[in-house]
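Q: Structure tokens for this one, please.
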Amino acid sequence: MAANKEMKVPLLDLKAQYETVREPVRKAIDEVCDSQWFVMGPNVKELEDRVAKYSECRHGIGVSSGTDALLVALMAMEIGPGDAVITTPYTFFATGGAIARLGATPVFCDIDPETFNLDPAAVSAAIENDCDHTGGTLVHKASGKNIKALLPVHLYGQTADMVALMDIAGAHGLGVIEDAAQSIGSEYSDGRRAGSVGHIGCFSFFPSKNLGAFGDGGMCTSNDDELAERIRVLRLHGGKPKYYHALIGGNFRLDAIQAAILLVKLGHLDDWTAGRQANARMYDTAISRSGLDGNVIAPVTRTGRRHIYNQYVIRAERRDELRQFLGNAGIGTEIYYPVPLHVQQCFEYLGYSEGDCPEAEKAANETLAVPVYPELTEEQIQYVVDKISEFYN
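A: Here is the predicted structure, written as tokens:
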């Protein structure tokens, strides 16, 4: 039965989270201000060590944003003009944008319709049909570029099929960069955590993430000593020691204040994740018993995987009308992502067209994120599902 009581349910309520960490966060900021050490320093080093351990990696390298994590990871693998990188079109722009910014070519392959992650079968088909094997090098026929890496995204908080993707990469000598911006602490079915399976993992600490700073911030993780050291040097303009540059890098440093805030929040991350998972289970149950079959499809979690629910994303008939109806009822929602990268205007030069990645295009037209943040109440969750039912009934 639809709820009669109107209420406000924002997509995300960071103020509610802040109330739980206000005093330790302010203390941490004051300590940085007292030290006057604002860039890099001991807070950044401690955060690197703790995130690396949390992600089951030997190395953590703090950087200025999740986008810069992708950029410096690609730079560390020496990807540039003449190279191509296989990735997904159904993701935030930074995934494809970082590749293009270095003069390399994104090669877009379709997604698994259940998890929304890069589909290993689509990758294998693209390699078989759209590439030539020349002298041990994989060459993308349409662009003439050498495919050098694979860049899967662990979308919405669930890992991509990393065993299959790593097998493909290994068979063709490709580097693997994991875009784990939405998936800190998520696990593959064999227990390995996001960011630890490929050669480099890339994380974002944008405020809306499960582990969010008070501004931009990011991190690269790796179990490869050489790649980790290259990233450390590249984030400081390629200088080691200072003022001596064997590499051309950039200014990808992490602020100490952001690191100090993240250190406080990291201690709460597993509890917040458990809250999101509990909320997701409540949604699953409420959607199942509401008779919405055929109208709404709840997220699919692969067996054995730890899904951290950075977002709770449903598929919905008449998605845009539903979103407007929920907005009128005081419920915040978001569409991730309404235009897949392969048909974005800035990538017209790549020659893709509608129909080239049909699952990504279908997801772009059907998916809708509803609130899942840990401070939600059961009453709020039921209100969201009741309003969805009211729309369809």
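A few notes: The mean pLDDT is 95. The first strand starts at residue 59 and ends at 63.
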